[in-house]
């Protein structure tokens, strides 16, 4: 299938997470400065547009202390790694003690400057963001939260939970997936971006739907995505404007749409 100007054939595992990117059990690396650690295969809800819809449950997750130690050892042997993404699944489906087991293991490494909590909890289960959890996460001074938020209504749902993290000094960013029929009207996207910045959530990325099999019904053509980006850029300042990108297999970075 042709995705915009790029010939990318959708597959069940476009980023080779079960094969190429898997560096030690439960750890994946595609870029030199960061690694992704699979902490669980559970989510608060299962998104129909999920990039890992075919591999969730098949991918090794880090369970035992020995497995976590092996992941920490891998990071130590790769001193360029400065950013650890705790993902899955959703790391916040785990109890606080388990979440902190991961955070503390990587925060103890001087080379690790950023630990990203990749979660939909503030939207899907806002009560999961307790004062206690926010306090624990803030302790290392290295934690950032990346929240998957797709609509202005979801911003309202997560606003108070996000504020608990932000008020503790944890930067909260949004990652949005551009979805046909959900947020692909320019005015809807503009409203989402304005709502995010009003809630002090940094609009970070708007992603094209990944080249995963079975997601065609959600995919927005590149040309339309570019028009939505232009529409927003002409109406809001840089603080509220995320990068509109596509994550393409084999690319060395997330590719800005205007390069496609
Ligand atoms: S929360 Fe993330 S990992 Fe879980 S189903 Fe949704 S997109 Fe996939």
Provide a descriptive summary of the structure in words.
This protein is an alpha/beta fold. It has a single domain, classed as Aldolase class I (TIM Barrel), CATH 3.20.20. The protein has 7 helices and 12 strands. It has helices at 65-77, 96-107, 121-124, 131-138, 152-167, 186-198, 222-233; strands at 2-3, 6-7, 22-24, 27-31, 34-38, 83-87, 114-119, 143-148, 172-177, 202-207, 243-246, 255-256. The strands form 2 sheets. A 10-stranded mixed beta sheet has the order 3-4-5-6-7-8-9-10-11-12. A two-stranded antiparallel ribbon has the order 1-2. A hairpin with a 2-residue loop joins strand 3 and strand 4. The radius of gyration is 18 Å and the shape is globular. Mean pLDDT is 93; it is low at 1-5. Bound molecules: iron/sulfur cluster.
Short description:
By secondary structure, the chain is an alpha/beta fold. The protein contains seven helices and twelve strands.
The total count of helices amounts to 7
- Unreliable segments of 5+ consecutive residues: 1-5
Strand order of the largest sheet: 3-4-5-6-7-8-9-10-11-12
Strand content: 15-25%
Bound molecules: iron/sulfur cluster
